[in-house]
Amino acid sequence: MSFITISEESHFPIQNLPYGVFSVGSSPSRIGVAIGDYVLDLNEVKHLFNGPVLSSKQHVFSETTLNSFMSHGRSAWKEAREKLQQILSKDEGILRDDSTLREKALIPRSKVQMHLPAKIGDYTDFYSSREHATNVGTMFRGKENALMPNWLYLPVGYHGRASSVVVSGTPVRRPCGQSRSDDTKPPVFGACKIMDFELEMAFFCGPANKLGEPITAANAHEHIFGFTLMNDWSARDIQKWEYVPLGPFTAKNFATTISPWIVTVDALMPFAIDNVKQEPEVFPYLKHDDPFRFDVHLEVAIKGEGREKAGVVCKSNLKNMYWTAKQQLAHHTVTGCNIQPGDLMGSGTISGSEQESFGSMLELSWKGSREVSIGNGEVRKFLKDGDDVVMTGYAQGIGYRVGFGECTGTVLPALSS
Predict the structure, then answer these.
(1) What pLDDT digit, counting tens, does each position of 83-108 carry?
(2) What's the pLDDT score for residue 281?
(3) Is the pTM of the predicted complex or chain greater than 0.90?
(4) Cα–Cα 20 to 30 A to 75, which of 25, 39, 151, 370?
(5) Which residue intervals of 278-335 are DSSP H helices?
């Protein structure tokens, strides 16, 4: 337990300690760790990281992004976590009993502004929920051809746009583009009419691999720093027209929202469950026996403009993943592709087998054929201007939660088309 009072419903107990980047007022951005209702400013306590790995690397906690810390790998991450749990423990007085240091280092979360936690060099989005892929395939190709022939052999993915990844709370403008709703007529240009969210999680990469040297599934955890919530916004009508033959482009590049806190792999390991039994058997480079699928409760709510309460539209779980993050990273690098610290890898939309667990409006409304209640007597088939989309997630322990906070965004009207 921590000397800081933390409720059982808090997303940020001492068992979690997620990393983020924050500022207060006009001060420079700096690295912090969430603990209860506070942020621990790591620059103020960096001198306490005096273990064999971090004693010569304390400067990483004075930087404005997490990239350098990510680059030092699991030995540094593990040592930092152990030190943080020590200094925040109710039985340790080094911070608890030093009122001057405590006042400088512990800042109420209500007073901070959160920023992107890393400089994201590259961003890749996968398509790793079998239920989601089956739902989308059924809608557009029928049950017999729901999954493409490659889906059960490799983690399907595409390269996204890193420059438009934004932190939670950033408004998202409805995009304009080409669409073709009537196959007998030419395409038209205008504002997206079928705006959607996609419930995803993502992981940040740690140490780089050398160009030409793949990462295997067996050691991929050495390169995975931690996980965050993600909303990969989607312009469905634009996507339908443009995605053949090369996949998503402008329908996905206008915005991707992530939550500001990165929950480390070590914090999630108590919630690891057995991996999905994969048939047909995967190639050796994708095999790993250690559990790397996580029981994380996920929820999406929508609040219409001017409304006080958001209505829950989706309850899913990260365990609804066929391909693990380790397999995703192994496949990404099997060609020798080199990753860099701070690279972001999205899971793809996370859907379960029940309608309430579908992770997008495309599925919830079944391509617009049914209405979805958002409470307050309102319904949606897709997102309207002014809608707030709120994603949350947590793993439930005994008497505590390891949570991710919120991933939020408001849909702004399109610019004149």
Answers:
(1) 999 999 999 999 999 999 999 999 99
(2) 97
(3) yes
(4) 39
(5) 325-333
Enumerate residues 6+ apart whose C-beta is below 8 A from 50: none
- Rounded to whole angstroms, the Cα distance separating 268 from 361 reads 28
Q: Which backbone phi and psi does 101 adopt, to 5 degrees?
A: -65, -40
Contacts of 398 (CB under 8 A, 6+ apart): none
Closest CA relative to residue 189, chosen from 385, 417, 382, 384:
417
Which pLDDT value is given to residue 416? 79
Quote the pLDDT of residue 417.
59
Residue pointed to by tokens 């391509």? 367
Q: Which residue has the tokens 């007597």?
A: 377
| 376 and 359 Cβ atoms separated by less than 8 Å | no
Catalytic residues: 132
> Helices in 200-316 by DSSP H: which ranges?
236-242, 265-268
Amino acid at 316: S
DSSP state of 341: T
Instruction: Flag residues of the chain having pLDDT under 70.
Output: 417
* pLDDT score recorded for residue 113: 98
Here the contacts of 58-65 (C-beta below 8 Å, separation 24 or greater) are 60/31, 61/31, 62/30, 63/31, 64/21, 64/28, 64/29, 64/30, 64/31, 65/21, 65/29, 65/31, 65/116, 65/117, 65/118, 65/119, 65/342
